């Protein structure tokens, strides 16, 4: 089980980086420079409640900075990627705090499923980006 956790945690930064590299227009408007999004760090040095607060803050910032272009399909996808990453970050936090096998399995499932969905959304954005050119 530790190998599965390590594998899930190892790919999270790659997925998160790709999620923010899709477009260049953000909620702040065309004149606002894109802000560097905060990152979530799962660490046993913080209590669980602080990790959950961090995960929520990162997710909220990511959703607010999501590149929007007025197309509902596009805007939905760009906002859902940080939302899904927030679920992954929360699952990482609980894995540091629980030994309950049901919660650990649930968290690992959330990580795996949400990562797949993030990849699907990234692929959708890439496909529709190329279709516009």
Helix and strand layout, with pairings?
Elements: H1 2-19, H2 48-64, H3 72-97, H4 101-132
Between the first and last Cα atoms, what is the distance in angstroms? 45 Å
Low-confidence stretches: 3-30
Helix content bin = 55-70%
Structural shape: globular
Query: In terms of structural class, how would the helical and strand content be classed?
Result: mainly alpha
What's the helix-strand series? Answer: HHHH
Oligomer: single chain
Number of helices: 4
Quote the beta fraction: under 5%
- The gyration radius over C-alpha positions equals 16 Å
- Give the tally of β-strands: 0
Mean of all residue-level pLDDT scores: 81
Largest sheet entry: none
Q: What count of structural domains?
A: 1
Signal peptide: 1-21
Domain DUF305: 73-132
Keywords: Signal
Region (Disordered): 23-42
Summarize the entry for a quick read.
It contains 4 helices and no strands. The chain is mainly α.
Description of the structure:
It comes from Duganella radicis. With 133 residues, this protein is mostly helical. It has one domain. The chain has four helices and no strands. Helix 2 packs antiparallel against helix 3 and helix 3 runs antiparallel to helix 4. The chain is globular and about 45 Å long.
């Amino acid at each position: 089980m530790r190998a599965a956790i390590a594998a899930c945690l190892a790919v999270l930064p790659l997925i998160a980086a790709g999620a923010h590299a899709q477009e260049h227009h953000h909620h702040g408007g065309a004149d606002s420079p894109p802000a560097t999004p905060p990152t979530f760090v799962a660490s046993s040095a913080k209590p669980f409640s602080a990790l959950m607060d961090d995960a929520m803050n990162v997710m909220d910032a990511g959703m607010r900075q999501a590149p929007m272009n007025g197309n509902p399909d596009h805007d939905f996808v760009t906002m859902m990627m940080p939302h899904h990453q927030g679920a992954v970050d929360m699952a990482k936090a609980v894995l540091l705090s629980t030994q309950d096998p049901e919660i650990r399995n649930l968290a690992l499932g959330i990580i795996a499923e949400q990562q797949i969905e993030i990849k699907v959304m990234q692929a959708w954005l890439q496909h529709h980006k190329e279709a516009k050119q």
